Amino acid sequence: MAIRVLLVDDQPLLRTGFRMILEAEPDLAVVGEAGDGLQALDQVRVLQPDVVLMDIRMPRMDGVEATRQITGPGRDGPAKVLVLTTFDLDEYVVEALRAGASGFLLKDAPANELVQAIRVVAGGEAMLAPSITRRLLDKYAEHLPSGADSVPDTLGTLTEREVEVLKLVARGLSNAEIAADLFVSETTVKTHVGHVLTKLGLRDRVQAAVYAYESGLVRPGAQQ
């Protein structure tokens, strides 16, 4: 079955461009468009898309609040949110990640990256460009809580190796890079990541990265 995509952007020309790119792919189907967050919420309820391609700055309701309402607690729909941001890394993307976005993409990304990003997010993965995500969190570290003096009790449920993996996820390393760093297989890394998400009650790698920063486990700019 084709991946169902909802386009959300207040610029009609951009939506048209995205539609042309996505409809050229046999496994993607654009099921609707919205020009602001409120329209997006209505469209998600009616159309049940798999992926919402979400702009951040829009009238009436911005992409952060729309993302929060689409992916927040109690939501049982399939929709995952892929945030679109400007080239200079929009400061609101950190809030969107907190709100439940599965990742983000630069608006000037090549067409093939847009297509692949949608496929990855639809497949339950996140953090398509981990190094960019890390730089984003570092850049806007002042918007993140500084963290308590001690790390949250939930971290105590992780093994020492799982804590290592969480730190590397937060620093933007892919599974392959983590495997090389820890001298283990990618399969082992995937298992550790899965355990981290389950134990901490997190949905995906993006939430894990934000959690690591907010808990104080990882400090922006610091080296492990």
Main pleated sheet: 5 strands, parallel
Radius of gyration: 17 Å
DSSP strand (E) fraction?
5-15%
Q: Reading side by side through the largest sheet, how are the strands ordered?
A: 2-1-3-4-5
CA(first)-CA(last) distance: 43 Å
Sketch the topology as an H/E string, one letter per element. EHEHEHEHEHHHHHH
Mean pLDDT rating:
83
Structural class: alpha/beta
**How many individual helices?**
10
Please estimate the helix content: 40-55%
Overall form: globular
Number of strands: 5
Question: Stretches where pLDDT falls below 50 for ≥5 residues?
Answer: none
Structure notes:
47% of the residues lie in helices and 12% in strands. The protein has 224 residues and is of the alpha/beta class. It has a five-stranded parallel beta sheet, sandwiched between helices. Helix 3 packs parallel to helix 4 (93-99) and helix 7 (160-170) packs across helix 10. The longest helix has 15 residues, at 186-200. The termini are far apart. Residues 4-122 form the Response regulatory domain. GO terms for molecular function: DNA binding.
